[in-house]
TrEMBL record:
PANTHER family: LMO0824 PROTEIN, WINGED HELIX DNA-BINDING DOMAIN-CONTAINING PROTEIN
UniProt keyword DNA-binding present: yes
Keywords: DNA-binding
Name the record gives this protein: Winged helix DNA-binding domain-containing protein
Source organism (scientific name): Streptomyces cellulosae
GO MF, one example: DNA binding
Length: 394
């Protein structure tokens, strides 16, 4: 990777973020596919996050819901599947093979081993039985096109079988085969989340057979994924890369070497960018504001976040598990939080007033109105609630 080439300061990192994450006005995207390609992955744990994250980056958000639904469920140019850190994301479909080989295979092996271990300890049927149920389930899903777990259980009744998990322990529970098996099939890249049963905010998903993809060499896939992510999010430290991918540090270093990444100096220490991305990046011509949703990929993009989020703001804006809530941005940094009230009003609070004057407040108000305009009568409550969001949304 060579010597450290130059220092990249906070101002330039924020400029890169504004442009590459489609947040500054002139950089906004035309459609959901362009947004997803720019960010590599959209957090999909909370279904509403996908739509809110897309809308915040579209030049015209009015068509967010139909266009994002089209991409996910009709054209299938976007796919919701398990990815890094065993988290559900929405990826461009052409990335599914890369994600599966680079991050999914290792997680899948652990998940299947854990399921078989838990079933064996509970006296449940063995691996041969589970394989039969799996094959029958996939065949049923292929026939049905999309189906919920309950609908699949009508085709394959053995999915209703239950077993006791961690018997005699404080966290003992009863697991259903369908829940655990579909999860395993998801991380193995055999099934993906399909159309929800309700609106775009619903978390009750159908399942669908995963789109066919080639089997890639894991090391080559890791190099490919790292190239895409560093292009969108570089510079980043080794700690950022290890956290985002969920890989071992040896895998991160191997991938950095494979792509010929360049080293730069950051306030946190040594950072990395892709080859050819060392030159300075100018700030956007105009200041910008954004209201980003809970779990937004920009707010959650780095492990080391002090360059865009002051540490003193974290207790108000994150839940106890480290999930970020809705955030207000001004010129590349988080300055507050926002929420939607039961009557549909979008409200916000500035927590960091440095540099936030009348122009900033007017821009933030315009973004709030922009958001209210396309959300309409839909009410959005984050799946993981944070102190500021709960207070504002009351």
């Amino acid at each position: 990777m060579g010597d450290v080439e130059r220092y990249i300061g906070v101002a330039e990192r924020r400029a890169r973020l504004a442009l590459r994450h489609r947040l500054a006005g002139p950089a906004r995207a035309r459609d959901p596919e362009e947004v997803a390609a720019s960010l590599v992955a959209l957090h999909g744990t909370d279904p509403a996050t996908v739509y809110l994250a897309v809308a915040a980056r579209l030049a015209d958000p009015a068509s967010t819901v139909p266009e994002t639904s089209r991409a996910l469920y009709e054209d299938r140019t976007l796919v919701r599947m398990h990815g890094m850190r065993h988290t559900v994301f929405v990826f461009p479909t052409e990335l599914t093979a890369v994600v599966h080989a680079s991050t999914g295979l290792a997680v899948a092996a652990r998940e299947r081993t854990a399921l078989l271990k838990h079933m064996a300890s509970a006296g449940a049927p063995d691996a041969v039985w589970l394989k039969e149920v799996e094959e029958s389930t996939l065949a049923a899903l292929a026939r049905l096109g999309q189906a919920t777990a309950a609908e699949l259980a009508k085709e394959e009744p053995r999915l209703r079988e239950q077993f006791v998990y961690a018997a005699g322990k404080g966290y003992e529970g009863v697991h259903t085969v369908s829940t655990r098996l579909l999860k395993v099939l998801g991380v193995e890249g055999k099934v993906v989340r399909g159309r929800p049963r309700g609106s775009w905010t619903s978390s009750q998903f159908r399942w669908a057979v995963a789109p066919a993809h080639p089997e890639l060499d894991p090391a080559e896939a890791q190099a490919s994924l790292l190239t895409r992510w560093l292009t969108a999010c570089g510079p980043a430290t080794e700690a950022d890369l290890k956290w985002w991918t969920g890989w071992r540090v040896t895998e991160v270093r191997r991938a950095l070497s494979a792509i010929g990444a360049r080293q730069v100096s950051l306030d946190e220490g040594v950072g990395h960018v892709v080859a050819g991305d060392v030159d300075p990046v100018a700030e956007p011509a105009e200041p910008w504001a954004a209201l980003l949703p809970a779990l937004d990929p920009t707010a959650m993009g780095w492990q080391q976040r002090d360059w865009y989020l002051a540490p003193e703001l974290r207790p108000a804006l994150f839940d106890g598990s480290g999930n970020v809530g809705p955030t207000v941005w001004w010129n590349g940094r988080v300055v507050g939080g926002w929420a939607q009230r039961p009557d549909g009003e979008i409200v916000w609070r500035i927590l960091d007033t440095e540099g936030v004057g009348r122009d900033a407040e007017a821009a933030i108000a315009a973004e709030a109105e922009r958001l209210r305009g396309w959300v309409g009568t839909t009410r959005v409550t984050p799946r993981f609630r944070t102190p500021v969001e709960k207070e504002l949304g009351a």
